[in-house]
Design brief:
Length: about 240
C-alpha cells in the first residue's frame, strides 16, 4: 500500500497561491511507502478567506498525521480488501489554530467508515494560528494505491449504474437531496450486485451533513452483477 500526499491549495474567496518545500515524511510501519507532495518553490503561502497560514506549516502538521490516516485504511481493508483511493479534505481553521470543520471535498475511497475515520483524525490536527485577522480555509489531500497483493476492483463507468441510480433517486429525498450535482459517490459492488462499501464527497460543509444518510441508503441498493470479482464505480448525485 503506497500513500501519496498531494496539493495544498486555496479554495477560498481571495487569490490563491501554493508553495514551500514539503517536510520529510514521518516514520511509518514497514511495507508502506509514503510519497509526500512536493510543492513548487517560491516561499508563498496558502491564503484563506480572511487569514493566512504558511504552506510549509500546513504540510508539517498534516504530514505528521499520515500514519494515522494510513491506519484508517488498514482498518477499512479488513472490510473491503481492495480498498484504495484519494481523499481531499477541505479545512476551516479558526483563530486559535484548531479545526472548526473539515469535510470531504473529493473522495474515491468508497467506504464511509474509512472516510469518517480520516475526517475524525483530520479534525484533531492543530495548525498555526492564521495571520490576517480571520480564519483560513484550504484543501489538502492524499492517495492510497491498491496493494500489490490484492487485485484491484474492476473499474466501471458511471453509465453502467445509471439505471439503478435513476430507479432509487427518489429515495434520497429522505436525505434532503433535492438538487443534483452536489455529491460524488463511490461504490464497491460485490459479485451478485450487493454493495460492499459506499462513500461520498461534496462541494459544501452543509451538504456534508447528509453523507451518512446517503451512503446508508445506497448500501441497500442492488447493482448489476460484476461477475466473478468486485467492481468500483463513481457517479454523481
Amino acid at each position: 500500500m503506497r500513500v501519496t500526499a498531494w496539493g495544498v491549495c486555496l479554495m477560498g474567496m481571495l487569490s490563491a497561491s501554493c508553495g514551500g518545500a514539503a517536510p520529510p515524511p514521518p516514520e511509518t510501519p514497514s511495507g508502506v511507502e509514503l510519497q509526500p507532495f512536493e510543492a513548487p518553490r517560491g516561499g508563498m503561502q496558502v491564503e484563506g478567506i480572511l487569514g493566512t497560514i504558511p504552506q510549509r506549516k500546513i504540510e508539517a502538521a498534516l504530514q505528521a498525521k499520515l500514519p494515522e490516516f494510513q491506519r484508517c485504511f488498514f482498518d477499512g481493508a479488513s472490510q473491503v480488501e481492495m480498498l484504495s483511493g484519494h481523499m481531499k479534505f477541505y479545512f476551516r481553521v479558526g483563530l486559535d489554530g484548531r479545526v472548526e470543520w473539515v469535510h470531504p471535498r473529493g473522495s474515491s475511497v468508497g467506504h464511509r467508515p474509512t472516510e469518517t475515520c480520516l475526517l475524525s483524525r483530520a479534525a484533531r490536527v492543530k495548525f498555526p494560528e492564521p495571520r490576517g485577522g480571520g480564519p483560513a480555509e484550504f484543501a489538502w489531500g492524499f492517495e492510497v494505491d491498491n496493494s500489490d497483493v490484492v487485485r484491484a476492483p474492476v473499474a466501471w463507468d458511471a453509465e453502467q449504474v445509471s439505471a439503478v441510480v435513476d430507479q432509487h433517486r427518489a429515495e434520497l429525498g429522505a436525505c434532503e437531496v433535492h438538487e443534483p450535482g452536489h455529491y460524488k459517490v463511490t461504490v464497491y459492488v460485490a459479485p451478485g450486485g450487493k454493495v460492499l462499501g459506499a462513500g461520498a464527497a461534496t462541494d459544501s460543509q452543509p451538504a456534508a451533513e447528509r453523507i451518512d444518510c446517503i451512503t446508508e441508503a445506497i448500501q441497500r441498493w442492488t447493482f448489476p452483477d460484476p461477475g466473478s470479482y468486485a467492481a468500483k464505480v463513481t457517479f454523481g448525485l
